[in-house]
Design brief:
Elements: H1 2-36, E1 43-49, E2 51-61, E3 63-73, E4 79-84, E5 91-92, E6 97-101, H2 104-153, H3 159-205, E7 208-210, E8 215-217, E9 227-228, E10 236-251, H4 252-265, E11 271-275, E12 286-291, E13 301-308, E14 322-337, E15 341-344, E16 347-353, E17 359-370, E18 373-378, E19 385-389, E20 400-404
Parallel strand pairs: 1-20
Antiparallel strand pairs: 1-19, 2-14, 3-10, 4-6, 4-9, 5-8, 6-7, 8-10, 10-13, 11-12, 11-14, 12-13, 14-18, 15-16, 16-17, 16-19, 17-18
Helix pairs in contact: 2-3
Amino acid sequence: MKINSVLKVKHVAWASAALLAIILLIVVTHSAAKSSTPSSPLAMVEIAVAEQRDVPIYGEWIGTLTGQVNADVKAQVTGYLLTRNYKEGSFVHKGQVLFEIDPRTFQAALDQSKGQLDQAQAQLIHAEAQLATADANQLKSQLDVEKYAPLAKVDAVSKQDFDNASQTNLANKAQVRAAEAAIASANAQIRTNQAAVETAAINLSFTRVVSPIDGIAGIAHAQVGDLVSTTSDALTTVSTLDPIRDYFTVSEQEYLALQKRFSDSGVDHWKLQLILADGTTYPQEGQFYFVDRQVNQNTGAIQLAALFPNPDNVLRPGQYGKVRAVTRVQQNALLIPQAAVNEQQGSYLVAVVDKDNHVNMRPVQVGERTGTMWVIQGGLKAGDRVVVEGQQNLKPGMTVQTKPFKSNVE
């Protein structure tokens, strides 16, 4: 019994020692596993340094393109449209026939006017012949009167012969006056008929509707077979597109500031950029053309116009054409990339990384934008490092890894 008790005690001791060894092994293994797990990596952000330099400040205004000249091509006579002789949207030359109106009525009117003119000219020839005969007869009768007058005083001829000669002379003078009146009437009729011929010829020429200018011809608003007249809408419109005009409006305050800037600087022309509807910048630079004579009292804005070269006629009237131009140069402006600025409920925040790579969020006051940069008017100083990429999930006090920001914009 005593031996069994001793063995039982030893067995319990061994079991306790084994359990303790297992527990120690688990603890050591857990500690080793914990110590072997790597720590979470620091967030990687791209930073840019706030820089200070002189920058141009741009203004942008919404504009609309239109032709330098937009000529409405209208019918000037009434008739049925026979043909359309141009390709819509193509370039046409001054004097090129665009449409033809049925000319038969106008050709008939011209032929009739010419016939009436020929008749009047024949009447003139007949009247001139009558005048020549009347002049000859009047001259003969006048000589007879002059011959009989002294003879009648001495009774060398009878009074009856002298009276007959005088009456014949008076009749011949009346015939001369009648022939002269006939000539005047014939000349007046000729002038009237000549005007009628000229009018008929002009109307006939109007049946060939031509382009008044060199330019791009638009869509035809009348089709073959339509009855057109002087009261009809334009058959089409032809526009000169090189250069093309861009109308845009500026506020009265902007206009006064621009006027002062250019008068003070002595700049004689204002170079402009054209931003198209897809956001691209038109490669050709434009120039200021004119300013309207008055400010619109309803809007407080004034209209300006710019001209842009358009050698390939790529730009067309009616296109959106935002105008962009330098309005002033800001000296020693503090700049950071626009992507570094976060707008939150009307305020602007920037994530700034200090020399120990700790993050702090700083409110800033922003000014104008220039290119991809933003002018900062307060809250930063030159040399501050701001986060441009990787702002997501950043919190004040975090430690981050940094690398320089590289812009894709040239």
